């Protein structure tokens, strides 16, 4: 951290040496004086304005004690550390039980400590989601996140009871967790165009979920296998969600419907594919690494996710599934519950950070 004194000295050196350096570059004496004066004024104005820009002034004047580090860890950097997760490698024999492994945030990471991420307990999650409407829409990956979320808020036994309904092939699933008044909808939306239709429907009804997680890709890759077309639909989806965003200068949009509360929106990325163990010939042929990258490229080219300047927060299943590794999947595309559980806790922590809530 730079103290005010060092900053002053640095400024003085710049005023003195930059014009001298320029003089070496055959500038006339008048030009040197002009640059010197201009630099001096710029720096002086900068120093006097600094107190009015809190993030910058706290950066240059705060002493480096750990409490200040915690306070100055900002929202965005915490969001960027959320995927710093490791999976336990001890129990690496995958035996059909999805709960063999455990995971945690890397504690070697200073950012993670400062951000104070936590695996939410059932009651914390209930507090957080009390009274809210959660929609998860997409293909089988989204369904697996629903399982993790319901296991957390309903408990394992209750979840086992509803598992049959949830896994009726290619169907929607709706439930209400009465204890906390949480409404949850899973919408089977295997193509990105299905997601766009859903967003348009919400906009027409002017009725928006509080939390909206969406993601489609694998199904499209298998049944359409055309990354360019996929990109076109992703761009259309992006256009359709832009008017739902909170009003901020970076997303200045005309034609904004009256959204009372903006939903918290997430994009569920595709997992790492392990081509050799995909379970049909057709999948092995179409779902290649090259095709995976071509599809993934469309997500950032279209600026759908925030890491690339877009509106949705990416739940990076590719990163999580590669960290969990080969031993976490039997079919090369659906991973053990631990991966989706981690994704779900990343989502809940992102919600906590975004809503600036703190659990007591
Ligand atoms: C899988 O492994 C876990 C823990 O090692 C064990 O509790 C469980 O019974 C095993 N399941 C099967 C189907 O073998
Ligand atoms: C949910 O919120 C309602 C009203 O805000 C409250 O009465 C209830 O106790 C809460 N339930 C849980 C489980 O937190
Ligand atoms: C999803 O979109 C496809 C292609 O537009 C359409 O054929 C299909 O009926 C839609 N599925 C659902 C569940 O809406």
UniProtKB/TrEMBL annotation:
Could you list this entry's UniProt keywords, alphabetically sorted. Answer: Membrane, Transmembrane, Transmembrane helix
Q: Does the keyword Metal-binding apply?
A: no
| Coiled-coil stretches | none
- Tell me yes or no: is Protein biosynthesis among this UniProt entry's keywords: no
Q: Please classify the protein's predominant subcellular localization into one broad category.
A: membrane
Entry GO terms, CC? Golgi apparatus; membrane
- State where the protein is found: Membrane
Q: Which PANTHER family match?
A: N-ACETYLNEURAMINATE 9-O-ACETYLTRANSFERASE, PROTEIN ALTERED XYLOGLUCAN 9
Name of this chain's protein:
Pmr5/Cas1p GDSL/SGNH-like acyl-esterase family protein
Q: Which organism is it from?
A: Cinchona calisaya
